[in-house]
Fold this sequence. Notes:
It contains twelve helices and ten strands. It is α/β, with parallel strands linked by helices. It has two domains: 3-186, 3-Layer(aba) Sandwich (Rossmann fold); 194-295, N-(1-d-carboxylethyl)-l-norvaline Dehydrogenase, domain 2. Helix 1 crosses helix 2, helix 8 (193-209) crosses helix 10 and helix 8 (193-209) crosses helix 11. The protein is globular, with a radius of gyration of 19 Å. The chain starts with 7 loop residues before the first strand and ends in a 5-residue tail after the last strand.
Amino acid sequence: MTSGNVSIVTVIGSGTMGNGICHVFAQSGYRVRMMDISQAALDKAMLTIEKNMDRQVAKGSLTAEAKAAAIANISTHTDMAEAVTGADLAVEAATENVELKLNIFRKLDEHCAPHCILASNTSSISITKIASVTKRPSQVIGMHFMNPVPVMKLVEVINGYATDAEVTKTIYALSEKLGKTPCVANDYPGFVANRILMPMINEAIISLHEGVAGVHEIDTIMKLGMAHPMGPLQLADFIGLDTCLSILNVLYNGLGNTKYAPCPLLVNMVQAGYLGCKSGEGFYKYTPGSKELVVSSRFA
Length: 300
Ligand code: CAA
């Protein structure tokens, strides 16, 4: 299959990554089926997509007509068999949990047409392992978008051990059609993006934990000193501290090197439910509707 033959895309999961992925496919003219287990989650995701497209309309990067056409490209589904009917590509963007993803891929394999490519947006779980629960491992691939999906240019394309070269070509060309820059990596723990990003975030947390500097100082040094759009602690809050911890555990267990051991402070914060933006507090405290960056009173 070439990227030109992909016209219907099913996206499993309507959270931050899922709705962002639906947004970019729909805006590029693909028919998108967004699937989640609850209609309430799907309704919330549609509102988020509308709000994010409204931002683009206000900035002049999208016309009101193009927005309406993109929104009309998206349908919502709670039933997997219905959501994948006629799909040429299914992109899984569920929570970063191995058992959950394996179950989704078993079902996708059962319900999708034989030609359909199965992609995962996983940030660190092995594509080879995911592919192994299907009867089409050569058609399983990683398609790792970055958050916020409509803004970030990268798609990390991950070849599982058995991924067919034609499938990689299709996903590469498709990513370019979405206006993204794809980069191919092989399937080893954390791939490239998180193998390099997470140790930096972990080291920032260790620096805070050991009292080398405060939250504001660590983030300002990295933001202004390295021209990063956000400091590593703010970025950890943005990604979700639970996600950072789970990726670090994949690196630690998968590569067997103590340099990836998650900082005990990160473990404590996740256990206490301080997950960053999504829970309202992590290294910073977040007030809905406010863009002001306020350091959590625990670190002030
Ligand atoms: N949808 C559409 N547009 C969006 C958007 C969204 N969800 N979020 C932001 N934007 C747009 C804004 O409208 C704005 O557009 P213009 O440039 O045309 O004005 C632009 O993005 C910048 O947004 P803001 O002005 O609101 O805020 P900002 O300048 O502080 O930028 C940011 C916000 C883009 C998130 C920036 O801080 C950033 O790039 N941060 C780093 C993000 C990053 O590193 N992401 C990767 C995380 S790792 C990951 O995702 C993978 C993993 O496996 C863990």
